[in-house]
Amino acid sequence: MINRFQSNSLDFKAGSFLFGLVLLYATIVFFISPVTLPEYLALIGTYGKTLPIAFIAIFLITQITGIITLGIKTKFKASPFSFCFNKLKEKWQKDRFFSFIWPISTLIILIPSFNVFKQTILYERGFTTDPLLAKLDFYIFQNDPGLILHSLIGSLETTLVIDNLYHAWFLPMILGVILVSICSSATIRIRYMSCYIFSWVMIGSILAWLFPSAGPCFYIDFVNPNHENYIKLMNKLYTYHQESPVNALIYQQYLADAFNKNNVAIGGGISAMPSVHVALATLFALGSFSVNKWLGYAMSLYALFIWLGSVYLGWHYFVDGLVSVVLIGLFWKWLLVLEKIKMCAFSRGMGTRYNQSDTGR
After folding, report:
1. Residue 290 has what DSSP assignment?
2. End-to-end CA distance of the chain
3. Where are the alpha helices (DSSP H) in the chain?
4. Cα–Cα–Cα angle for 237, 241, 243, nearest 5°?
5. Dist. CA 17–CA 14, nearest whole Å
6. What is the reported pTM?
7. pLDDT profile of the chain (361 residues), mean per 10
């Protein structure tokens, strides 16, 4: 059990370190990108204006949910205003809101920096890994997995459901950060945010640079215009698009238009391997298991849905998601092992101090 002093110390040390890593990432991206300082700050400001609105909305939803849950447990005898006030007071007395501020600040700096990297730096690498990824997918399934999914569940209704849920992914992306920022456990917060940063910096930036790829939806435009399977896949999606708008196709066109442009577009940049969507969806599941077993199972199904949905909509190869799931799972496990090692060292240190104190008596 981590005591209050140790929890505050963990938050300050680990939170400062992780936020410092994000600032370092942002600085490196700025110096190696062609983006000017005013453009960079303007992009951060744009995200800084939009993200807090989402934060406030989701924060209110989570608080209202908590108040309703409390009301049901106490038969609405407890004051919801007193409950919220006491929670805020407790947070202020504990660390002056530091544990709430640093995860949110990390997100506000991290996302626009990744946006700049993906659109102004990554595009220079080209898309040299796509042929290999396409062959791996075909080797595993003996066909294109996207076409297999369409043959099994393809329809206009299915496409619209997958499309809408897939593009609502940004909600848990923000919600997860809010929940860990108000969470009472510093250990869970640090582990989650470590994996969160790992997803954007290591998976979405470094590995994406090492294995540059566009994905099935851009294969025809940027790799090989005569790839038969991906022509069939995109034709199926465009057939549904003629009946009812498919957001994935609209956004794919937006990314294609913004590709190799001087101005940085919000959410711009093309990259498939590994999948940040699947990495974060896997993180949502792992984080949920820390709270509740059944919530973890539900979010695991959601992660699987995002993985298969990314293939169905042509965003990713199947192996993109596979690599992300393995990497996040291993990194999460590694952090758990580190936590156990540190707890054992802390316990031994406390035991030594106790014995020395007892001997002194």
Report:
1. T
2. 27
3. 4-32, 37-74, 80-95, 98-116, 130-141, 145-153, 156-166, 170-182, 186-198, 208-210, 216-222, 228-243, 247-258, 276-289, 293-312, 318-360
4. 125
5. 5
6. 0.85
7. 53 87 94 86 73 60 60 56 61 68 87 90 90 95 95 94 89 82 83 95 95 94 91 95 94 89 81 94 93 90 95 96 96 90 60 51 53
